[in-house]
Amino acid sequence: MITKKTICRTLLSFTIFMLICFPLLAVEKIRISTQQREPAVWDKNARSVTNRIEQWKPEETAIIVCDMWDKHWCKHSTVRFAELAVALNPVLNAAREKGVLIVHSPSDVMTFYKDYPQRKESQKYADESLKPLTDGSPLPLEKGQKFPIDASDEGCECTPKCKIYRAWTRQTETITIGEHDLISDLGTELGGYFKEKGIKNVILTGVATNMCVMKRPFGIRTMKKLGLNVVLMRDMTDVMYNPAMPPKVDHFSGLDLMVNYIETFVCPSIVSTDITGKKPFRFSDDRRKRIALVIAEGEYHANQRLPEFAEELTRKNYHCGFALGVPRMNGEGRHNIENLQILEDADLMILYARRRALAPEKMAMIKEYVASGRPIFAIRTSSAAFDAQKPIKDEQGNVLEQWKEFDKDILGGNYQGYDSDLRKQGTGTDVTIVAGKENHPLLKGVQPFHCQDWMYKNTPLRSDKAEVLLRGKNPKLEEPVLWTNGSNAVYTSLGHWDDWTIDSYKTLTHNIVEYLLNDSQK
Ligand SMILES: [Zn+2]
Fold first, then answer.
1. What is the pTM of this model?
2. How is the beta sheet containing 478-485 ordered, strand by strand?
3. What is the Å distance from ligand 1's center to 134 Cα?
4. CB 251 within 8 Å of CB 239
């Protein structure tokens, strides 16, 4: 017999079941780690590189695959795009698996797909009222800006030059088209579909960043104008750029400069790691040395100054990647650094961090890098990079890891603060070259200089290997301000935001990079 009690019990059990199971049934959000260049807080005319963590619902997210054709008129490009397709397909598969919509947008070849259900589905949502937004014209922020690479020759770097013609007939077969994917090269269709289905986030992939990815009717500019939350997947794209053209850099440095432009004026970028959990893609032809800039500091505007330095290094054909912590002295999210996986492939780590504790797996990435014997250039606050001065726990109550002896063990330093009276007085530091060290490769072209730094106390250094090259003097003290610790570690206690405008300091930072990356100098 069904009694009231039985009904109540059944309802109660059902409620408990739902409470336990519903969170498990709910679709997992995708953790997106963006990189963008925003006006710096202290100087609106300057840009700083920042990171944001967003949680995206897969059902509100689409990936647009731009112009990944079967063949390009340029031979070089055909080969590179084919390599990219092999890397891109598993990323799309992983995203589809998570519930992300995949949109295939090979321009000009829609007739090939005219009978595909994925093509017909897209056509149902055409909204001609969106047409004016799809002309690919520049965004307001881009006003007065020029792309950093000259592709007025259409970007062919082959000898002899390839003949331009419509070489494409379809999307490359390397990329799988799923049953529930879309095929469209029109913003009017995609805009209509996204609105109807509640798609809010769009990831652009494919080629080429300085052409179709930006300008097509389904490209980044259109998606921005449609009000979508757009990002570029910066490791799943390429450029049309011939290194013989300005600014005469390596093809892949040209790509990096174009990504900088997009991060500055158009939209943030991400790497495929957010979808796959794996290493970002790198073209086999990209043989540049790789520099990982680990920046987690909120006092000296390092996330503005180091990216400026990084752009100079990019123009010297080094690849520069950023692993970023929030640029704050205190507060939420401080004990985290994003994108540390770049250390795995890095040839040099440039570190400008201050008092961060890290999740053990993240600290392990730093320690693995250091243990591998690869070089480190550590700047100013980095002597206390991983010393948070007290135990730190994450939101779940897990203790985060610190590395208090980093200063002594790796840099040979002995950081003991600075004279705060002199800091207030702004007396600065006079920097001089240690007698007998004038011909050291690190000091080529470096002259004594005066700088704004309130000088760090570091005497006595704690390493037998330490070789002091620069000393600083203020009205009270004389201290080492630059030394090597063995052939693979260079530390400077300089690094005030104004230092990066002093010629000798700039020369010094470039010398340090060249020295640490070239064994022949050691
Ligand atoms: Zn070519």
1. 0.93
2. 319-324, 290-296, 348-353, 376-379, 489-492, 478-485, 466-473, 429-433, 449-451
3. 29
4. yes
Domain range summary for the chain, segments of one domain joined by +: 57-282, 293-521
CA dihedral 237, 243, 246, 248 (to 10 degrees): 120
Question: Region 152-157: what's the mean pLDDT?
Answer: 96
For 284, what's the count of Cα atoms within 13 Å in the CB-facing half-sphere? Answer: 9
Buried b (16+ CB within 10 A) or exposed e, 415-435: beebbeebeeeebbbbbebbe
Predicted local distance difference test score (pLDDT) of residue 41: 82
Residue 377 binned pLDDT confidence (cut-offs 50, 70, 90) = very high
Instruction: Please confirm whether the linkage preceding 247 is cis (ω < 30° from 0).
Output: yes
When the candidates are 3.65.10.10, 3.40.50.880, 3.40.50.300, 1.10.300.10, the CATH number that belongs to 293-521 is 3.40.50.880
CATH class given for the domain over 57-282: alpha beta
Check residue 42 and give its pLDDT. 81
CA of 248 to the centre of ligand 1 (A): 17
Ligand 1 mean position to 159 CA, how many Å?
A: 7
Evaluate whether 443 touches 465 at the Cβ level (below 8 Å).
no
7: pLDDT confidence band, cut at 50, 70 and 90? low
Q: What tens digit of pLDDT does each residue of 399-415 get?
A: 999 999 999 999 999 99
| 307 φ/ψ sector (left φ>0, alpha ψ -120 to 50, else beta) | alpha
Q: Ligand 1 centroid vs 161 CA: distance in angstroms?
A: 6
Residue 511 CA, ligand 1 centroid: distance in Å: 36
Which of 310, 393, 401 lies closest to 349, judged by CA? 310
Q: What angle do CA 309, 317, 243 make, to 5 degrees?
A: 130
Tokens (6 digits) for 110: 């829609």
Tens of pLDDT along 268-278? 999 999 999 99
Torsion-angle region of residue 118: left (phi > 0), alpha (psi -120 to 50) or beta? alpha
**What token pair was written down for 383?**
């002597």
The β-bridge relationship of strands 30-39 and 47-56 is antiparallel
- Distance, in Å, from the CA atom of 335 to the CA atom of 129, rounded to the nearest integer, reads 47
Residues within 5 A (CB) of ion ligand 1: 74-76, 156, 158, 162
* Mean per-residue pLDDT, 334-347: 96
